[in-house]
Amino acid sequence: MDPSQIDLIILATSSPNDLFGSASQIQCNIGAVNAVAFDLTAACSGFVLGIVTASQFIRSGTYRNILVIGADVLSKWVDWSDRSTCILFGDAAGAAILQSCSDIENSILNFQLNTDGHYSSHLSIPYQDNDKPHSFLNLHQGSFKYLYMNGKEVYKFAVSQVPLSILKCLNSSNMSVDDINWLLLHQANERILNAVAEKLSISRDKIIANLSKYGNTSAASIPLALDEALQESKIANNDIIVIAGFGAGLTWGTIIVRWKEFTLG
Q1: Known catalytic residue: 118?
Q2: Which pLDDT belongs to residue 102?
Q3: Which residues belong to any copy of the Beta-ketoacyl-[acyl-carrier-protein] synthase III C-terminal domain (predicted)?
């Protein structure tokens, strides 16, 4: 595919190079001269929300070829003296292209999304005003603090809510856990991956994981793990993949995909 064929670029990131967004810079750098481009901020759920957003643009007939990117550079937001967080995260990027097709060829079978802002403080990079106001204007200027994570609460949230989201998505598609060939979760930590699989009675052999290599790469973790699974020929044509992201917001969601082998036109 030539970059000029891309209609839309969605960059899922919480760490842009420019606070106003980095998608337009990517559009320029790859020569996607016909593409609209914007950032989407949903932290570790970003790639899932990006895929769902892209699929709805395609379904409406607005765009035909959409580049969805998940990328984060959390190394610039962690406190390197805090080993409770700094050793957990990695920097990475991954991407996928969604293309329009007939209903019978559609590979995104269903999705289910959620947000609960009551618990946003458990995982955040909060903004903090300076103590002293501007010298002559009645306002405070400040800066963002380091990444903060309440690991215990995030774990409780993930292992309770992610399985429910997956089950809701399966049930509304008239599918069951037995239909799942692969479980691809946001690569937060191994305990969460195993606990979610156990709650769903899914064999650990069906978990796609590469956490030990890269750590938690936020919005990049799902496309990164998916690409490695494809490179290793784990995923076969027509396999059912349940993809679930979860993270800051708190946000979480599930996509059910029937994998189709294809070549880009």
Answers
A1: no
A2: 87
A3: 170-259
Using the predicted structure, report yes or no on whether residue 40 has a pLDDT greater than 70: yes
SS3 of 151, please?
A: helix
Q: Which residue in 65, 122, 186, 210 is the catalytic one? A: 186
Beta carbons of 92 and 78 less than 8 angstroms apart: no
- Which domain range does residue 196 map to? 108-118+147-258
263: Cβ contacts below 8 Å, ≥ 6 apart: none
In a domain, residue 123? The reply is: no
What pLDDT was estimated at residue 48?
A: 98
Closest CA to 221 of 179, 197, 190, 250: 190
What is the structure's pLDDT at 261?
A: 77
* Catalytic-role residue among 34, 44, 110, 238: 44
Would you tell me the crossing angle of helices 190-199 and 151-172 to the nearest 10 degrees? 40
Q: Is 122 designated active site?
A: no
Q: Is residue 96 part of a domain?
A: yes
Q: Which one of the listed residues 134, 216, 237, 238 is annotated catalytic?
A: 216
> Are 254 and 151 within one domain?
yes
DSSP code at position 57: H
Pairing of strands 127-129, 142-144: antiparallel
pLDDT digits (tens, 9 = 90+) for 218-256: 999 999 999 999 999 999 999 999 999 999 999 999 999
